[in-house]
Amino acid sequence: MNEMTTIQTAKVEEKLYQNRYLVDAGRPHIRVKPHEVPSAGLLAMIHLCPAGCYSVAESGQVELAADGCLECGTCRIVTKGTGEIEWNYPRGGFGVLYKFG
Amino acid sequence: MIDEKFDAIVVGAGPSGNAAALVMAREGLNVLQIERGEYSGSKNVQGAILYADALEQIIPDFREDAPLERHVIEQRMWTMDDRSHTGMHYRSDDFNEDKPNRYTILRAQFDKWFSAKVREAGALLLCETTVTELVRDLKGKVIGVQTDRQGAPIMADIVVLAEGVNGLVGQRSGLREEVSPDSVALAVKEMHFLPREVVEARFNLKGNEGVVIEAMGTITKGMTGTGFLYTNEESISVGIGCIVSDMTESEVTPYELLDAFKKHPSIRPLLEGSECKEYAAHLIPEGGYNAIPKLHGDGWLVVGDAGQFVNAVHREGSNLAMTTGRLAAETVIELHRKREEMSEANLKRYLARLEDTFVMKDLKKYKGIPALLHGNKGNFFGTYPQLISQAMQTWFRVDGVDKKSKEKAIMKNFRETRTLRGMLGDAFKLARAWR
């Protein structure tokens, strides 16, 4: 087996740990609306989100912890048709603070 | 709060917004620029390469104090399979010139510098403030903005939307269509630090010379996308991006894709021993000419990534951003001086200016490319890179097989894998889209 097929599952938390954030405590800028069964788009966010913010609960609903969000907007674009998430930019000054960009 | 009326409000302080605000302020217009980040650049992400020409048009002597990393003297274009790369490299001492043509930059620092120039020119910058909606009069004309700070709306004759690819203001106000998952790429990037002597030795550089690598192939696992590696003064920017709709269908995470790219035998030695200090993600408009939304209306203009102004084929974006920002500003200045209304009909002159420049000419030239690549992604990003690598290996490996037989084996591999008809079709379609 070569390198490409044996890569370990990357730990995204270790990557996010390098970044600076000013978290707006108690005011997440993205929310997943209550749902029974997530759409394919919302489910895809579990692997698609570059900050690994999305996960699936045992009961099958998609959950979100937005603290590590990189504010790319991918989840907004992917779920805009279903309206399953409510997406805003963090309040001015909050969120990720890029040192290098 | 602010109760004066401005000649212009610019939403966003990236390259397009800074260009627009600077050009208008320098000509005496009363400009307010609103940025959601702590400072201009704190929310902005790019590879990043700066193309000097577009900035020279705005700040001719920018080289005197702009934070530039390295000037690019060598471009490497790679097609990759899992173990190899086939490269086309162009390096020239001609790029060691008094006024170099391309530089690597770090956006957080560069944008901050650009923003200082905007303020020196007289624009008022309001940071840590997010524009939440547009304010319109009874006829629907945009006359100002509402922000997330308490207070009355802020009014202006014109609002220039430089709010980026994921700009909510214009999309939510219905000024332009929502961005589609098949016309944007999700790119992730890491900043890897190394002593500058190591960067220079590893890439055969001296002084501030720099190398950029653009790569395609099996690194994107059959998805439409590219990888890149750029040398900075004492760091390396390494990243990879794929079209969002492709990534949605795959199972791979963006960071797994990036880690696999970093572990590729052609990339790993270049990053050896480096320390990663930042991980960023951003969307890149990749839809080209056909994805350009409506760019003007009563009281508003769109510039930069919000207008999908990226030439994906040539990896150009910030130069299109600065140029569209400058052209929007020049349009506004002309109307302001003639005391003409900022109406949809009058602002159409912005479109005429765009048509006259490389921005629209290039986007038009390549308008068929995004659909062609996306529609044939398995071939262009998988089959061909593999075939090219296998052909190279057959050709260069000396193993007692005669050259005529090697030629036959290479041709047979191409024909059997992609068929003659398929290859001719691909070549024809590519030539037509490139024209």
Automatic annotation (TrEMBL), chain A:
<keyword id="KW-0249">Electron transport</keyword>
<keyword id="KW-0479">Metal-binding</keyword>
<comment type="similarity">
    <text>To ferredoxins from P.putida and C.tartarivorum, ferredoxin I from A.vinelandii, ferredoxin II from D.desulfuricans.</text>
</comment>
<comment type="function">
    <text>Could be a 3Fe-4S cluster-containing protein.</text>
</comment>
<dbReference type="InterPro" id="IPR012206">
    <property type="entry name" value="Fd_FixX"/>
</dbReference>
<dbReference type="Pfam" id="PF05187">
    <property type="entry name" value="Fer4_ETF_QO"/>
</dbReference>
<keyword id="KW-0535">Nitrogen fixation</keyword>
<dbReference type="InterPro" id="IPR007859">
    <property type="entry name" value="ETF-QO/FixX_C"/>
</dbReference>
<protein>
    <recommendedName>
        <fullName>Ferredoxin-like protein</fullName>
    </recommendedName>
</protein>
<feature type="domain" description="ETF-QO/FixX C-terminal">
    <location>
        <begin position="47"/>
        <end position="98"/>
    </location>
</feature>
<dbReference type="GO" id="GO:0051536">
    <property type="term" value="F:iron-sulfur cluster binding"/>
</dbReference>
<keyword id="KW-0408">Iron</keyword>
<dbReference type="GO" id="GO:0005506">
    <property type="term" value="F:iron ion binding"/>
</dbReference>
<keyword id="KW-0411">Iron-sulfur</keyword>
<keyword id="KW-0813">Transport</keyword>
UniProtKB/TrEMBL annotation, chain B:
<dbReference type="Pfam" id="PF12831">
    <property type="entry name" value="FAD_oxidored"/>
</dbReference>
<dbReference type="InterPro" id="IPR059103">
    <property type="entry name" value="FixC-like_C"/>
</dbReference>
<dbReference type="GO" id="GO:0016491">
    <property type="term" value="F:oxidoreductase activity"/>
</dbReference>
<keyword id="KW-0285">Flavoprotein</keyword>
<feature type="domain" description="ETF-QO/FixC ubiquinone-binding">
    <location>
        <begin position="206"/>
        <end position="283"/>
    </location>
</feature>
<keyword id="KW-0560">Oxidoreductase</keyword>
<dbReference type="Pfam" id="PF26311">
    <property type="entry name" value="ETF-QO_FixC_C"/>
</dbReference>
<protein>
    <recommendedName>
        <fullName>Protein FixC</fullName>
    </recommendedName>
</protein>
<dbReference type="InterPro" id="IPR049398">
    <property type="entry name" value="ETF-QO/FixC_UQ-bd"/>
</dbReference>
<dbReference type="GO" id="GO:0071949">
    <property type="term" value="F:FAD binding"/>
</dbReference>
<dbReference type="InterPro" id="IPR036188">
    <property type="entry name" value="FAD/NAD-bd_sf"/>
</dbReference>
<comment type="similarity">
    <text>Belongs to the ETF-QO/FixC family.</text>
</comment>
<comment type="function">
    <text>Could be required for the formation of a functional nitrogenase Fe protein. Probably accepts electrons from FixA/FixB and reduces a quinone.</text>
</comment>
<dbReference type="InterPro" id="IPR039651">
    <property type="entry name" value="FixC-like"/>
</dbReference>
<feature type="domain" description="FixC-like C-terminal">
    <location>
        <begin position="370"/>
        <end position="435"/>
    </location>
</feature>
<keyword id="KW-0274">FAD</keyword>
<comment type="function">
    <text>Part of an electron transfer system.</text>
</comment>
<dbReference type="Pfam" id="PF21162">
    <property type="entry name" value="ETFQO_UQ-bd"/>
</dbReference>
